[in-house]
Design goal:
By secondary structure, this protein is α+β, with helices and mostly antiparallel strands. Strands 1-2-3-6-5-4 form a six-stranded antiparallel sheet, with helices on both faces. Helix 2 crosses helix 5, helix 5 runs antiparallel to helix 8 and helix 8 crosses helix 11.
């Protein structure tokens, strides 16, 4: 609880903490079942306060479903990797010093590295959220998991549209099928070089919103890969042609910019109108976009 309270605007960290807690409890459950095979023990462990039918489960939007499944699948795998290292000592050490990113859960070697894993928190943006008197309604960190899910969902929708089936909206299960299945998806590969991000969502007219999203990547090639992937996803979503030079594009009431920045950062602005989009860019003092193809 202490760790959860310390990250009020970091959903990725909260997801990582939850994955560790669920993974630990599932690992204990499995070990207990292996030791006690009596019917009473099995009944006690299998009881659940809520039960969901397969039909109800499939009605959950894919992005939310995969996020909910992540701790029970890949969180458990993370704890299993820790247990293989130094048994319960490693797991207990992690509970005292948990992973702060889903990147570490997806790649346990990052968590176990001697130097540790340090993500970019974009702390320099603290206090800079208000734009023209408009305060963000959402300030958060997407993290590698949600970036991967976003890109994989977009890739799935593009494939369905190409097959003449645009009404099929929910991608098949990913995280529940294991890390190998998840990691081989193009969206997961584009997200794998994540080193940090932060996004702000602002209210617009009616149901419109404006998004400012800044991310950092492990190197220039990873930044280019993500920029290309998110540019493709936004072009498909808004039915626009996004230039590869970091310029603005507009269409269907959206004004969008995806730009490579110095120090392996990527800027994404998805605004409901051009004026607010440029105010967002100026507010955060975005540096000059880097050359995409030096």
């Amino acid at each position: 609880l202490e760790h959860l309270r310390s990250v009020p605007h970091n959903g990725d960290a909260r997801q990582a903490f939850w994955s560790l807690a669920v993974g630990d409890s599932n690992l204990v459950r499995i070990r207990f079942q292996l030791q006690d095979t009596t019917a009473a023990a099995a009944d006690e462990l299998m009881q659940s306060p809520t039960k969901m039918t397969r039909e109800q489960f499939e009605r959950i939007p894919a992005f939310i479903r995969e996020t909910l499944l992540f701790p029970f699948s890949l969180g458990e795998r993370f704890c299993q990797v820790l247990h293989e290292k130094d048994r319960w000592t490693s797991v207990n050490d992690a509970l005292a010093a948990p992973p702060w990113t889903t990147a570490e859960v997806l790649h346990p070697e990052l968590y176990l590295a001697e130097e540790g894993f340090k993500s970019e928190q974009f702390e320099r943006f603290d206090g800079m959220g208000s734009v023209g008197g408009v305060t963000p309604i959402w300030d958060d960190v997407a993290g590698e998991l949600r970036v991967a899910l976003l890109l994989n969902q977009s890739n799935f929708l593009q494939r369905m549209a190409g097959l003449g089936q645009p009404d099929i909206l929910d991608m098949p299960e990913l995280v529940s099928k294991g890390i190998e299945h998840f990691a081989e998806r193009p969206g997961s590969q584009a997200a794998a070089g994540w080193l940090g991000d932060r996004f702000f969502v602002y209210p617009g007219e009616g149901d419109d919103t404006h998004v400012y999203w800044r991310s950092k990547w492990t190197n220039a090639e990873e930044a280019k890969e993500f920029a290309a992937a998110i540019r493709k996803a936004l072009a498909f979503r808004h039915k626009i042609d996004l230039p590869g030079d970091g310029g603005w594009a507009g269409g269907e009431g959206r004004h969008v910019k995806v730009a490579l920045l110095p120090e392996d950062e990527v800027l994404v602005i998805d605004a409901a109108d051009a004026d607010f989009g440029r105010k967002l860019e100026a507010n955060f003092n975005s540096p000059q976009a880097a050359e995409e193809n030096p």
